[in-house]
Amino acid sequence: MENNNNHYSIETKDLSIHYGRFTAVRNVNLKVEKQKITAIIGPSGCGKSTLLRAFNRMNDFVSGSSVTGEIFLHGRNLYSKHVDPVEVRRKIGMVFQKPNPFPKSIYENIAWGARINGFKGKVDELVENSLRSAALWDEVKDKLQESAYALSGGQQQRLCIARAIAVQPEIILMDEPASALDPISTLRVEELLQELKKNYTILIVTHNMQQAARASDFTAMMMIDDQRAGGVIEFDDTKKIFTRPTDKRTEDYVTGRFG
Amino acid sequence: MNQKTDSFPEGSDFYSALKKRYRVASIWQILFLSALFVAMISLTALLYNVMDGAFGYIAYEYKNDPSEFTFTPVNELSKEELLTILQNNLSAGAYKKLDAEQAMPTRSQADLMNLFLERLLQIDTKQTWSMTESILQGNEIRQEAKTNYPEARIEFRSWLTPQFLVSSLSSRAEFAGVRTAVLGSLWLVGIAIAFALPIGTGAAIYLQEYAPKNWFTAIIQTNLNNLAGVPSIVYGMLGLAVFVRLLEPFTSGGIFGLTDANGRTVLSAGLTMGILVLPLIIINAQEAIKAVPDSLRQASFGVGATRWQTVWYHVLPNALPGILTGSILALSRALGETAPLIVVGASTFISVDPDGPFSKFTALPIQIYQWTTRAQSEFHAVAASGIIVLLVLLLTLNASAILLRNRFQRKL
Ligand SMILES: Nc1ncnc2c1ncn2[C@@H]1O[C@H](COP(=O)(O)OP(=O)(O)OP(=O)(O)O)[C@@H](O)[C@H]1O
Ligand SMILES: [Mg+2]
Fold this sequence. Notes:
A: 5-stranded antiparallel β-sheet, 11 strands
């Protein structure tokens, strides 16, 4: 890695994201720390998913969307002409709100991403390690060739996490990964996050305040301004955000007095 | 707050209103049922009409009496007996010619029987009756035939026989068959699908997955939708101009060293049909591709796949059943179209099987049309049998395409 002494993984500079003429996210300046969990919270429609998708250029697929400002990974602007979005997505993985496994076998769900990225090692091992990292191995080790659709929602979501890990990204983006899960599966995913942060930088969007408070190291609070454009109004240690926020709106939101 | 009002009917008002709602509902239900009924009646009528022509009484005479050749009853003759009879009674030249087409001893009993009937007995059909007439008025028909054609034999005949399937065309209804036409149709449909399925799927992939959404692609889309409704004769004109005339060196096989062919080949016709079904295939493939959920594409991109990998490994396999559904429709259309074939020059009388893309050909709908325009009623019976063959062929091809589709669907 080039910037070994830099303990930031990814940084945004005056990042704004537009859908056509509408500015959904305005002027975001964030420094995300390496191997930490950063939560993004805020009311519905404030641009959390939009911001998250900008990190691995998923917004490229929304026709009419555009980005101004910069996002730096190892000092390289992800939106510069010389950066290939495929490389970005290979380095920055994503877990979506709804589990979306491929309609293939459990094994193939993990192996496919590695294979298309030219993985040269032992695929069987990779599959096992990824499933272990996602705390799914024991549940599925006897039915690797069965369809991923036969798994429960919580298992599917962990499979999606395993799939993201399998290509060994640096950063994992998660958009409300536990919103479709029951409390027990949710807890398992949270425990999993603590394991994963030893090796990965994690950015997670969540509506669940306890989850953000329990699981994350840093929290970014987003809110829309009078033109309905979202922005980060406060970014700090999670502890501080939940105990002594500086912004009144953050306090209202995290204590449930908002709206 | 939400105040309760008395704007809703209560009690007996409610019940009388409810009764009225049920009445309206049952009227619609009856209408839908009758619509289904009309559809079923039409279908049954269609099938019955076809069957009616293909079976029934026939009165025929032999120009030469069977006793001149043999004492065995005609329909009990064995292969060996037939062979001897033909050998003894045909002129040496005629026998040689037949033997050269296919060695006589290797021919089937049915084939030899046909030769016997055609060349020696010289069967001559006097009159045919429809199935309904034959069943309802069998006695009257026999009476009538006795008085009108005292020499004639009368029997109940099915025009749809195994012999009908394997015989080539003939100028005599009694010996006419559909082999040449069925093979022609299969070549035609095969070429059309082989041409249109990959191109149509490719175009659909480009339009759905790659093309930007702008006024230009909107125009292309609108044109595609309209092309699907263009009368087939127009495609025939296009095929004539492009495949038969302009590309004649290619479609005739000229550049591959064939000399005797012109552009009116099964290849030209197949490509014309391919163009005709292309919009149908593209539109169906587009719908199928659209139906693949975006979450799947995102999952694929999310692990660092390129667009092509996403399309090839995820979008296409998931859209395949839908794409195949489109090709089933295309197949039915190509099999049944007649007008463009007439324009690009299907032969109406040809007894040589098509044996490659550069063959002259005929197709089932062309033959059926041809037979129905003949004056002799026995040809109408042949046409009816031809229609049955066409319908069965259609059902078989569709069924196999559906089986194929279901296999792909189950794999997911
Ligand atoms: N594909 C799109 N095209 C146009 N506008 C969009 C699109 N996606 C989101 N938006 C708009 O951008 C704004 C932010 O949306 P976004 O989905 O990022 O919100 P969010 O914070 O994730 O909300 P939620 O918590 O409900 O998921 C909203 O006003 C939304 O209407
Ligand atoms: Mg969202």
